[in-house]
C-alpha cells in the first residue's frame, strides 16, 4: 500500500476525509428569503442578502427573522452566566454594560439580541439569540471588570455557554 492506495490501484476508504457539516443551526434559513422581506415582529428588513434596520418598503414580503423565531420558540443560541460577590455589589453597572453591548451589536447586526435577563439566586443568566452576542457581552464584562471568563462550545447544538465570575 502506497499513499492510501492498494497495489492493485483500488482506493481505500478514508473516514477522516468525509465531508462533515460545518455548522448546524436549525434557525438559519435554508434558502434566502425573497427580497425585500420584512420581519413581522421586529421590523428588520432582508435586503441585499442580509437582515438590516431599514424602512419597510411597500409591497415587501412578510416573514419571521431567525432572531424573532428563536425568541418566539424560547431557544437561545448563547447563555451568559454572571456571578460572584462582585456582581452583587455592581449588578446595575454590569447589566447596563450588557445592554450597551446589545445596543451596539444590534445596530449593525439585527439578529444579535438579548432574549432574557434572569436573576437566579446570586447569579444573573443572560440568554441571547446567537453565540456572538453572548461572547461579546462576556468579553466586555471581562475587559471592564476582569475576573474569570470561561467559554463552553457545543458543536452539536451550535450553542455557546459563557461564564463570568469575580
Describe it:
The protein has 166 residues and is of the alpha+beta class. It has two domains: 25-70, no CATH class; 76-165, Alpha-Beta Plaits (2-Layer Sandwich). The protein is built from four helices and nine strands. It has helices spanning 66-73, 85-89, 91-108, 131-145, and strands at 37-39, 45-47, 50-52, 61-63, 78-83, 114-120, 123-128, 148-154, 159-165. The strands form two sheets. Strands 6-7-5-9-8 form a five-stranded mixed sheet. Strand 2 (45-47) and strand 3 (50-52) form a beta hairpin. Helix 3 crosses helix 4 (131-145). The radius of gyration is 21 Å and the shape is elongated. The chain starts with 36 loop residues before the first strand and ends with a strand. InterPro entries: BCAM0308-like. It comes from Candidatus Muproteobacteria bacterium RBG_16_65_31. This is ATPase.
The number of helical segments is: 4
Q: What is the number of beta strands?
A: 9
Largest sheet properties: 5 strands, mixed
The appropriate CATH architecture of the largest domain is: 2-Layer Sandwich
N-to-C SSE string, H for helix and E for strand: EEEEHEHHEEHEE
In the sheet with the most strands, the strands line up as 6-7-5-9-8
Q: How many structural domains?
A: 2
Query: What proportion strand?
Result: 25-35%
N- to C-terminal distance: 57 Å
CATH topology of the largest domain: Alpha-Beta Plaits
Q: Any low-confidence stretches, pLDDT <50, length ≥5?
A: none
Radius of gyration: 21 Å
Oligomer type: single chain
What is the CATH class of the largest domain? Alpha Beta
Helical content band: 25-40%
Shape: elongated
Amino acid at each position: 500500500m502506497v499513499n492510501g492506495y492498494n497495489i492493485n490501484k483500488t482506493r481505500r476508504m478514508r473516514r477522516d476525509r468525509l465531508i462533515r457539516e460545518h455548522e448546524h443551526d436549525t434557525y438559519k434559513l435554508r434558502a434566502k428569503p425573497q427580497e425585500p422581506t420584512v420581519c413581522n415582529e421586529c421590523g428588520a428588513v432582508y435586503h441585499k442578502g442580509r437582515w438590516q434596520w431599514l424602512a419597510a418598503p411597500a409591497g415587501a414580503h412578510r416573514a419571521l427573522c431567525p432572531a424573532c423565531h428563536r425568541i418566539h420558540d424560547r431557544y437561545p443560541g448563547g447563555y451568559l452566566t454572571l456571578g460572584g460577590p462582585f456582581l452583587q455589589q455592581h449588578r446595575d453597572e454590569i447589566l447596563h454594560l450588557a445592554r450597551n453591548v446589545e445596543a451596539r451589536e444590534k445596530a449593525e447586526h439585527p439578529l444579535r439580541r438579548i432574549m432574557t435577563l434572569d436573576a437566579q439566586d446570586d447569579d444573573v443568566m443572560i440568554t441571547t439569540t446567537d453565540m456572538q452576542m453572548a461572547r461579546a457581552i462576556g468579553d466586555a464584562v471581562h475587559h471592564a471588570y476582569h475576573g474569570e471568563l470561561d467559554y463552553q462550545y457545543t458543536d452539536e447544538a451550535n450553542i455557546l455557554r459563557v461564564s463570568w465570575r469575580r
